[in-house]
Amino acid sequence: MKMLSLAATALGLSLAPFTAHAQSLPASPASSTEKPGKEETAPKKDETGLIVTASSRLRYETVDGRPRPGLATAEDALELRTGIAVEYGPGPLSIGGELIDSRAYLTGTRTAIGTNEVDALELPQAYLKLRLDGAVGRGNALSVEGGRFLINLGSGRLIATDEYRNTVNGFTGLRGDLKLGKRFEATLFYVLPQERLPDADAAVRANKVVFDRETFDDVLFGGYVHRKQALGAAQVEFAYYRLAEHDSPGRETADRRLHTIDGRIFSEAKARTVDYDLEGAYQFGHASASTLATARSATVAAGFAHAAIGYSFAMSFKPRIGLFYDYASGNGRGGNVNRFDTLFGSRRDDLGPSGTYAGLARENISAPGIRFDAKPGKRVEALLDYRGIWLASRYDRFYGVTDATGRSGDFGGQQLEGRLRYWLVPEHLRFESNFALLYKGDFLENAPTALASAQHIVRFLEFNVQASF
Question: Where is this region: Disordered (predicted)?
Answer without folding.
Answer: 25-49
